[in-house]
Predict the structure.
Amino acid sequence: MSAVTEQPGISPPWRERLRPRDEDHGGRTRGYRVETVILVLVALILSVATVYDVVRQVHINDRMHADLVSWRTITGRHGTHEIIEQDTKTYTTRDVVCGRTVSTPAAPALVCLIFQGPVKAGRRELTGGYFLLETGRRKTQVVDVPRHRYACFGDA
């Protein structure tokens, strides 16, 4: 005989919870439906935001690659240490690409080109540029301020 003996007319509490109900509690089902709709809407919003963010990042990467290709085509130099500065304050498509060139007698210089607009055939439109003297405590440190720029043209 088991430790729990069933008496006639008395059932254990777990059996009461598993027994089908005679009447329907409509309020609970309505609550579950509202919860489900809200969760589906939240999931939809999150998935749309994720897709939007991925597409935006792909466009930014495409734009940066086009900037590098354009810089290398215009300067004729194929270095590996170009610097891309994006406009993160106003989120425009204006990017500045700087890279080493032949050193000047005064100091090593970078040529900085400003690209703006959409990517067309893997390249972007050049809207300006300038030369920038390398200054700073370390040889590789560059301070991009107007007083270190020279031979500016276009939007620079």
